[in-house]
């Protein structure tokens, strides 16, 4: 599969940072890919899904959250709900009809928050399905030690080295508080659409138990969890990406 040469576009907004995105038109429902924390639309999974969608004539939207990738804004100024607002703004600007939201890691948390907002506003038919890749809802609760949480609150930010980037991960107090105010796993998540959750069994960052907890919390009766033997957090091997595309394709063909 060859890469699709679709140059990034930009969404201008009054009072909020300009957002970078890539959009390929086609039949619906529109696939919307949400990257993980400190990630962007240039990642391997996003690019592969976009190229597949374009080759199949399927509508697809990629985006960079404010402060990430090619979008304007300062990363440290953003919160979880700011990024949900970015996603909703781009859906409103570019997408008509139902969406299939695909969320990777933190993008899986935003996937849920975005779907809840769309269903409340537009009705259940707006969300045709959800696909989580090592989805990480509520990671402000389970992803930090008590001492790390104390640093975030006392010093305003936690800076950590990461194997995924030459830049350290920075978790600000504002983001942390936004996350804590929007936790989902301890109550029923009122989404009735089909949900597919893909999770590597060797994921060292998001325990596969999180996908099992998410499956239990969702109101939907059509939820499947696929545990990938040997898969790490990224799930970016050729076989992993093939699984992702096949999973999304089953939604678009249903």
Structural account:
The chain has one domain (16-252): Rossmann fold (3-Layer(aba) Sandwich). Helix content is 36%, strand content 22%. It contains eight helices and ten strands. The longest helix is centred in the middle third of the chain and has 17 residues, at 106-122. The radius of gyration is 17 Å and the shape is globular. 42% of the residues are buried. The mean pLDDT is 94.
CATH topology, by name, is Rossmann fold
CATH architectural name: 3-Layer(aba) Sandwich
How large is the radius of gyration?
17 Å
Q: Which stretches are poorly predicted, pLDDT < 50 over at least 5 residues?
A: none
Q: What are its keywords?
A:
single chain, 254 residues, alpha/beta, Rossmann fold, 8-stranded mixed sheet, two-stranded antiparallel ribbon, 10 strands, 36% helix, globular
């Amino acid at each position: 599969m060859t890469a699709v040469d679709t140059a990034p576009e930009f969404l201008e907004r009054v009072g909020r940072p300009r957002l970078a995105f890539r959009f390929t038109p086609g039949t619906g429902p529109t696939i919307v890919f949400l990257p993980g924390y400190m990630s962007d639309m240039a990642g391997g999974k996003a690019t592969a899904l976009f190229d597949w969608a374009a080759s199949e004539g399927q509508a697809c939207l990629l985006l960079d959250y404010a402060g990430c990738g090619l979008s304007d804004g300062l990363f440290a100024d953003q919160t979880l709900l700011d990024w949900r607002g970015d996603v909703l703004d781009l859906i409103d600007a570019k997408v008509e009809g139902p969406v299939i939201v695909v969320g990777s890691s933190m993008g899986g948390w935003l996937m849920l928050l975005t779907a809840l907002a769309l269903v409340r506003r537009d009705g259940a038919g707006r969300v045709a399905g959800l696909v989580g890749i090592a989805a990480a809802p509520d990671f402000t609760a389970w992803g930090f030690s008590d001492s790390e949480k104390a640093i975030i609150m006392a010093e305003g930010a936690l800076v950590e080295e990461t194997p995924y980037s030459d830049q350290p991960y920075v978790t600000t107090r504002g983001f942390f508080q936004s996350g804590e105010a929007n936790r989902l796993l301890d109550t029923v998540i009122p989404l009735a659409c089909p949900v597919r959750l893909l999770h590597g069994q060797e994921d060292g960052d998001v325990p596969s138990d999180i996908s099992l907890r998410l499956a239990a919390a969702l109101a939907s009766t059509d939820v499947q969890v696929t545990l990938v033997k040997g898969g790490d957090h990224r799930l970016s091997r050729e076989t992993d990406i093939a699984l992702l595309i096949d999973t999304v394709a089953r939604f678009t063909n249903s």
